[in-house]
Design goal:
It is globular, with a radius of gyration of 24 Å. A hairpin with a 5-residue loop joins β5 and β6. The protein has 13 helices and seven strands. It folds into two domains: 100 residues, no CATH class; 196 residues, Intergrase catalytic core (hpI Integrase, Chain A), CATH 1.10.443. It is 46% helix and 8% strand. The strands form three sheets. It has a three-stranded antiparallel β-sheet with strand order 5-6-7. The protein has a two-stranded parallel ribbon with strand order 1-4. The termini are far apart. The chain has 331 residues and is mainly alpha-helical.
């Protein structure tokens, strides 16, 4: 195979046959008793819509398929790994992907920092004010919402780190106090890696409020194995990430409506695009302004400081400040 063959394949992926395009994400295989069988609804390509488009009532169509830059990068990465294997096994004389990746018309190189998708100070303040109001008016439903928001922001948690699963179940005693009287929270994140996160005084107060609502002592002991987020109905912990996502989205939607009432249309429109994961980005971005980046790196579970550096926007702020008063016509 040559460079031209790889280019032809990428062109095919950018415009596949409509029958190859799915309108929703489905697993490639399904469990059928003791066997794993192909899922007839699976398609190799999927149309995705933004949250704003969904809220406007738009529905995905095969004609609306557009291969993202991230997907193209993934195609090149997978093909390159495959051809490197063929080279080592002496099945192929060269890696044609290496030739095309160096100066590819399909890939764009990012100059400078990548944009971190996060909430502004005004948006986050609006979300927290609204969630606190919900907790005061309907504590049975929304004390949980308030505690979850505090956890996402202050501990930079991923949604999978708050939902119970086969590999991890968040419990009350995952909050623990060390010999120096400092509080920590233990979680298991991406790659099944366990880490301890420093707990702030404000989150400790949020924990006290949450436990008071549950009619528990103010702070957990090592013997307290009760679920951190018990179900509203029935026993046991929350296991569904979809349920957690719906709780956060409800708070977002109420905050968007409030911002529109206050005449802050642009902030409301930007918040309409937010997802749960933006709360992790927001917490990290705010903390790197006031904490050593190595501390934020370890709490966030980043494998290197380079990942944490993406959240440092001090240079960007200074760069924009120097450009703000540039005139169109020189004085």
């Amino acid at each position: 195979m040559r460079r031209e063959d790889i280019e032809a394949f990428v062109h095919f992926c950018k415009k596949p046959p409509p029958s190859w395009i799915g309108l929703k994400k489905t697993p490639r295989f399904i469990e059928n008793g003791l066997h794993r069988v192909p899922n007839p609804e699976w398609r190799p390509f999927v149309v995705t819509l933004s949250k704003t488009a969904h809220s406007r009532g738009e529905r995905p169509t095969a004609q609306g398929f557009d291969l993202s830059l991230g997907s193209i990068k993934e195609i090149f990465a997978i093909l390159s790994t495959f051809f490197n294997y063929l080279l080592q096994e002496e099945y192929a004389p060269m890696n044609p992907v290496a030739l095309i990746r160096q100066k590819s018309k399909f890939l764009r190189k990012q100059q400078g920092q990548t944009k971190v998708r996060r909430l502004s100070v005004l948006q986050w303040d609006a979300v927290m004010r609204l969630t606190e109001h919900l907790a005061e008016t309907d504590p049975h439903t929304h004390e949980r919402s308030l505690f979850m928001m505090s956890m996402f922001y202050t501990l930079y948690l991923r949604i999978s780190e708050l939902a119970a699963s086969e590999r991890w179940e968040p419990r009350m005693n995952h909050f623990f106090r060390d010999s120096m009287d400092n509080w920590w929270f233990t979680t298991v994140g991406k790659g099944n890696k366990q880490r301890d996160i420093a707990v702030s005084d404000s989150l400790l107060n949020a924990l006290r409020r949450w436990r008071k609502h549950l009619k528990l002592p103010p702070l957990p002991t090592p013997a307290d194995t009760s679920p951190l987020l018990p179900r509203m109905k029935g026993k046991g912990p929350i296991t569904s990430t979809t349920y957690i996502r719906k709780i956060v989205q409800f708070c977002f939607d109420k905050s968007i409506a409030q911002l529109r009432l206050e005449g802050l249309e642009e902030d409301a429109d930007a918040l309409a695009e937010a997802t749960v994961h933006w709360l992790r980005h927001t917490g990290i971005s705010d903390d790197v302004k006031r904490r050593p980046r190595e501390h934020v790196r370890d709490d966030a579970g980043h494998s290197s400081s380079a990942t944490t550096d993406k959240y440092i926007d001090i240079e960007l702020t200074e760069r924009h400040r120097s450009a703000r008063h540039k005139p169109v016509v020189p004085q």
